[in-house]
Structures are given as C-alpha cells and as structure tokens.
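Hi R.,

As promised on Friday, here is the backbone we talked about, encoded as structure tokens. Could you run it through your design pipeline when you get a chance and send me back a sequence?
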C-alpha cells in the first residue's frame, strides 16, 4: 500500500480538474471582450480618415485649377490680382525694408526650422519613416511648384495691363509652407495644434511679404498653399499609417500645446481677414453694391488689403483644416 501511495503525484502537483465544455457563450464573449479592451496602445484610428485625406487632397488640386483659371484667364480675376500687386507700392515704403530682409532670410530660416525639428524628433523619438516621408514630400512640393510655374503658359491678354510672364505658384511661399508642414507632420499629435498655428503664421507672413515686395500676386501665394497641401496631405496619411504607435493623444485637453486656443486664434485671424476683405471690396464695388450710404471710391489700397485678406484666409483655413483632420485621424489612448 505504501508503494502505491508513493507512486501518486504530490498534492501540489496534481492537475486541476478539466473545465466543463458547456461554458456559456456570454462567459466566453466576456473574457474575449476584456482582452480586447485591455490591449495596450489605445483605441484604433478613426474610420474613414483615409477617405478624408483623399478628399482634402482633391480639394487642393481643384483649388489650384480654379485659382489659375479665375485669376489668370478671366478679366475680373486678372484685374483684382494685378491691382493688389500695383497698390502694394503704397505699403512698400514703410514695410518694404523689413519684408525684404525677411524674404532674403526666408530660405535659410525655413530650412533651419525644418532641419532642426525633424532631426531632433528623428534622433530622439526614432521616427525614421516619418522623417524620410516628410523630407521627400518637402522636396516634391517645391519641385512641383517650379514645374507648374514653367508648365503653365504665360498670362493671356484680357484687356488688363499686366506682365505676361507666369508667376503662379510662389516658390518662396511654398518653401515656407512646406517647412511648416514638415514640422507639423513629425511632431506628436498633442503638439500639432501649436505647430499648426505657428507654422501657418510663418507661411502667411512669407506670402504677405512677397506681395508687399511685389514679387508675387495674391493668387500666386494662394496657389502655393494649395500645392503644399496637395503634396503634404498624402504624405501625412503615410506618416499616420506608418507611425500608428506614436500618433496617439487624449484630445485637446491633454496638454497646453494641444489646447483649442490655437485653433481659435486661427479662426479669429481668418474671420478678421474676411471682414477686411468684405469692407475693402464694398468700398470699390460699383455703386457700393447697392448698400445705402456706401459709395464707390477710387481705390488706393483697397485691392491690396483684399489680396492680403485672401492670403490670410487661405493660410489659416488650411491650418484649421489640417489640425482638425490629423487630430481626427490620430488614435485615442482611451
């Protein structure tokens, strides 16, 4: 008897009784659900974000075509665009020296900002794919601008005295906007609202400076913003897809850099510019557009301010749209 007992396994090594096969479906589903919820990495990315990126890219391409047609091939568009350029002479005196200096330094500033931020993020956060995609897209955006400038035919004569040489899109503006977009793409989602506002402000300042110095018309600057968007949006989608692990955030309340304040400032700048544009155009419209008490006046700087407003509205509208789109596409931690 003692020999038989010694052959049995010790109590602490005995196998647990087999689990009954008739476990309820609710219990099995509950266990599986718990495993899914507790999976690290947060919630999946928003559904349909790829479609939104595609639609935004197509909107930029359509905007380039519309801008080129209206401001280059129609008499009204040419007149508005050229008048803003001519009236910039009135502003160039007090502001020309500062903006000329800024434009001279713009290529170096743009490259320095993009290089420092991209290099730091790449080395510190190991975001090699994001850095490669971003640098390549910046090069493509600037190359596309130069190709379009050469590919678009000269401005046709529509009765408006203007230089026939095509200047659309603006190369300086594309350089500034693509550098700002590069920083926007490689930083973490919680930093993107701040990066978007600062980068948008930098790009808008570059565009307005080219108008003040009579280097470019307002439509050239708008087209540069749209070219940048058409190239950087697909690149941004690739960054989101390849960097799914770090493109995670807790929303606008997570960090001071992700505050809705930055979106609000962009919206406010756009609304103020829209008000300036409406006021300027009403002053120079025939018979004041029929508004009581408003009379048509000879423009001295109204077209210029309307052109500046167009640049500011486009720049900050793109900032708000990009900030919302990337925030929507980023995964939530909980």
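Update: got your reply. Pasting your designed sequence below so it's all in one thread:
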């Amino acid at each position: 008897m003692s020999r038989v007992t010694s052959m049995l396994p010790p109590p602490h090594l005995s196998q647990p009784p087999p689990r009954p096969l008739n476990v309820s479906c609710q219990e099995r589903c509950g266990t599986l659900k718990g495993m899914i919820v507790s999976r690290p990495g947060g919630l999946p990315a928003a559904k349909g974000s790829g479609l939104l990126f595609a639609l935004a890219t197509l909107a930029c391409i359509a905007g380039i075509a519309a801008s080129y047609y209206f401001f280059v091939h129609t008499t009204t568009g040419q007149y508005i665009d050229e008048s803003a350029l001519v009236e910039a002479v009135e502003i160039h005196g007090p502001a020309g020296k500062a903006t000329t200096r800024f434009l001279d330094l713009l290529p170096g500033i743009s490259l320095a900002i993009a290089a420092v931020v991209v290099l730091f993020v790449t080395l510190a956060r190991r975001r090699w794919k994001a850095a490669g995609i971003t640098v390549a897209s910046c090069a493509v955006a600037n190359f596309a601008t130069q190709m379009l400038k050469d590919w678009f035919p000269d401005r046709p004569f529509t009765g408006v005295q203007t230089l026939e040489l095509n200047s659309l899109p603006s190369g300086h503006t594309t350089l500034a906007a693509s550098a700002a977009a590069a920083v926007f793409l490689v930083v973490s989602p919680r930093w993107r609202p701040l990066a978007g506002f600062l980068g948008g402000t930098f790009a808008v300042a570059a565009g307005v400076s080219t108008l003040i110095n009579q280097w470019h018309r307002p439509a050239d600057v708008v087209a540069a913003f749209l070219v940048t968007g058409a190239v950087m949006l697909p690149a941004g989608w690739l960054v989101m897809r390849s960097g799914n692990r770090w493109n995670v955030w807790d929303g606008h309340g997570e960090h001071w850099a992700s505050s809705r304040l930055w979106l609000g400032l962009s919206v406010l700048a756009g609304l103020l510019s829209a008000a300036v544009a409406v006021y300027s155009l009403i002053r120079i419209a025939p018979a004041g557009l029929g508004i009581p008490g408003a009379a048509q006046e000879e423009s001295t700087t109204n077209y210029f301010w309307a052109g500046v407003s167009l640049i500011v509205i486009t720049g900050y509208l793109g900032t708000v749209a990009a900030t919302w789109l990337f925030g929507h596409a980023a995964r939530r931690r909980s």
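One thing I noticed while checking it: Residues 46-332 form one domain.

Thanks again,
M.
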